[in-house]
Amino acid sequence: MNKVLVAGGTGYLGSHIVNELLSRNLNTVMIVRDKKRVNRNSRFLKIIEARVTEPESLEGVFEGIDTVFSTVGITRQKDGLKYMDVDYQANANLIDAAKKANVKKFVYVSVLNGEQLRNIKICEAKERLVDYLKASGLEYCIIRPNGFFSDMKDFLSMAGKGRIFLFGDGKLKLNPIDGADLAEAIVNAAEEDIKEMDIGGPDMLSQNEIAELAFEACSKPVKITHLPDWIRKTALFLLKTFTSSKVYGPMEFFMTTMVMSMEAPLYGKRHLSDFFKEKQAE
After folding, report:
1. Stretch 264-274: mean pLDDT, rounded?
2. What is the pLDDT of residues 162-194, one digit of tens each?
3. pLDDT digit string (tens) for 192-205?
4. Number of C-beta neighbours around residue 35 at 10 A
5. Which of 106, 139, 123, 112 is nearest to 265 (CA)?
6. pTM value?
7. What is the pLDDT of residues 27-76, one digit of tens each?
């Protein structure tokens, strides 16, 4: 890679990817909505204003770029934009612009088990984009990570209040990953010509074990309540019936993945237990 572009670089994972690229002294272009809100300085970094939802604003941005990294997506639908507007269409705009400028490779970050979760709105948009990318003719690298450490803060929040609620018996396992570890793996995958990769953190933990780590970080006794699955199903039905897609969308994903195995290949050196302790100390 000689010159790369990052879309979504102001977000959690995107900012880690920018850090990783700059640590390798790679010439990096970062597209943002408002340059004034970005406080970054590096002789290897160029910041350009563009809106990924507006194809015309991408004209000329990709000239000289050989690899694009996109983490563009929305967790919560806002500003009237839906998952199909951003996770799919905005990324499709990026692919079209990259193809027009003869970019060599497009690296896209979806979600673990996204192929099996197309019935969920956010995954439907992401995996439809994966299909579009594969059909684009560009070289591609598709990364499907497990949850981030930052996604586990709900465990810490509940532990701080004295009790953690889990659906089922809490024995399902997952291995969330730190953003810096994931960024390192993504850049390595792009350089090594990997087409598709599932990835998680270094520790395979049951939901019960994650809860125990959260209580330990909070210096509180372990109190876990296991809820029957009918409560989850009822909650999903009520949310879908009586709330907007802005509320229902992220809850649909969270409450679905909570009752399925989310095990991915192990990677990284940063541990969830340390993350919990750091957050609790803040």
Report:
1. 97
2. 999 999 999 999 999 999 999 999 999 999 989
3. 989 999 999 999 99
4. 12
5. 112
6. 0.91
7. 999 999 888 878 887 889 999 999 999 999 999 999 999 999 999 998 65
Count other Cβ atoms within 10 Å, centred on residue 180: 19
- Residue 268 in tokens: 């990284």
pLDDT at position 159 is 97
Tell me which amino acid residue 214 is: A
